[in-house]
Design goal:
Length: about 270
Amino acid sequence: MSDVASSAGDKAGKAHWNQVWSNRSLPKPVDPRGRGPRQYVLQAFHREFVRAFEGMDTKGLRLLEVGCGRSAWLPYLAREFGFQVSGIDYTEIGCEQERDILARAGIPGTIVCADLFEPPEHFIGAFDAVVSLGVVEHFEDTAGCLRACARYLRPGGRIITEVPNMRGLVGWVAKVTNRAHYDVHVPLGREALMQAHRDAGLDVLWSEYILPLDVNLFGVSGIGPRWLRLPAAGAASVVAGCVWALDARGLAPRPNPITSPYLFCVAAKN
């Protein structure tokens, strides 16, 4: 296609995601008021979504999640903000799992199995918001991927992009503990992510690093021997819990380019 990038720059690919999704059970829909070891992360994401949709009367508006395979976020976005939700993913197994997640949550939604660069014609310019969580960093041409995502938006619509901070501590550790995981990412910092949005013709509203640390992203699950992997995962969870507890009391480092695990960018289409 002449006006967007090609999926040939996809560093992950269908085979990667088919393997990832086939080995996992379905997640529960995100509940920002729930309890559990990952709740602190979910609450942080919730705050960013509230900020992203500030000033929008979202009830009844249409939202598309790009790369929706096995996402726990579509039911959340429907319940919390009143969006009519849809999703697109290029893996059959990811789409089937997402349909199951929505059905179990009792949330109506349309899930389409298609390449994001070759969308159904009726999806183009049809949405008020587009969300991508851990998608654009897998494409070598970040701006081209964002340009493709922006085609789904109506004028004035917003795009919310989240990527892991692979230029910081998360990426440095992943190089050692799970190199295959690191290699399917394009490391992006805040300035590079904002510039990619601008190069895609979007107006950046804001971009921020999220949380001071999340060692669960360090790829300890990729450590080889099981006898080492399990204790490492347990230790990572303990460290993460301690940092989150300090952060809740204002004692942890503020979100920053070095230790923060996540990076958000919110932009609008002219």
